[in-house]
Amino acid sequence: MRNPVFSNSDVFGEPRRTGAPRGAQGGTATAPNPYSQYGTAGPASMDASQLGAMYDAPSATTADTKRMTYDDVIIKTGGLLALLVVAAAATWTLVPPPMLSIALWVGLIGGLVLGLVNAFKKNPSPALIIAYTVFEGVFLGALSFMYNSMFEGAVTQAVIGTLCVFAGSLFLYRSGKVRVTPKFTRFLMMALVGYALFSLVNFGLVMFNVLDGFGMRTGPLGIIIGAVAIILAVMSLMVDFEFIKQGVQQGAPAKMAWAAAFGLLVTLIWLYTEILRLIAIINIFSGE
Q1: Which residue from 101, 145, 181, 215 could staple onto 211, CB 3.0 to 4.6 Å apart?
Q2: pLDDT per residue over 118-150, tens digit each?
Q3: Longest Cα pair distance anywhere in the chain, in angstroms?
Q4: CA-wise closest residue to 33 among 213, 215, 240, 250
Q5: Which of 132, 14, 12 is CA-nearest to residue 68?
Q6: What is the Cα–Cα distance from 277 to 28, expressed in whole angstroms?
Q7: What does the alpha-carbon distance between residue 145 and residue 138 come to, in Å, rounded to a whole number?
Q8: Statement: the pTM of the whole predicted model exceeds 0.85
Q9: Could you report the per-residue pLDDT of 231-256, keeping only the tens digit for each?
């Protein structure tokens, strides 16, 4: 399933094949510039002297052309992750335990609303992405404190697990051992839809006290479901990597690095929460 952060944007994904319609006089229409809406103009007519000056000039860098680079994505992703950790640590240490449940719901709702807004914006807004990161930091800080108070060391294990899974996913993608193909993305889409429906039903059963604890995600079944969720998160990371690669290769505008960083952050937050929950389920099952 395509991350909506990337699939909603015209600059990520495979190049669109546009036909060249014939004009009324038999001429061929010129295909529109795909990046004109982002301020990247197409080539203008030049005479011989202008062409000569252009070829004699130094090669333009990505900074000169205002195109997105891998460095842009890495820097912005690292900055957002640092902000996320700071917000989570502040919530963990400064919010009194009786207020943590309120902080958790504020962070969850605020992050959900801003996440949807950012995901469906054509042009990324750094301010909204930063605000989303802060809300998610508050949510993760409260959630992590609660889990760690019940299962000491769970947060440390989840952080290490998230870093290892991310590094392993990147290695597999860069090595070419796993290819992101249309069949790969279609399978991921169907699996994520099924997992989302299951999670929604399970959440409703717990909220209405039909089931307690983790609901249907308990015991061996809960461990299996948790492992499947982590595999889906890994597949989502690889799809994110592919979209970023295509964006760079197709010359996406530099500001789209914010959208790329936001997309990676969304997947990493999901991966961390799934690992944290799986650790808690394993601890409960092993203690029975």
Answers
A1: 215
A2: 999 889 999 999 999 999 999 999 999 999 999
A3: 82
A4: 250
A5: 12
A6: 58
A7: 11
A8: no
A9: 999 999 999 999 999 999 998 999 99
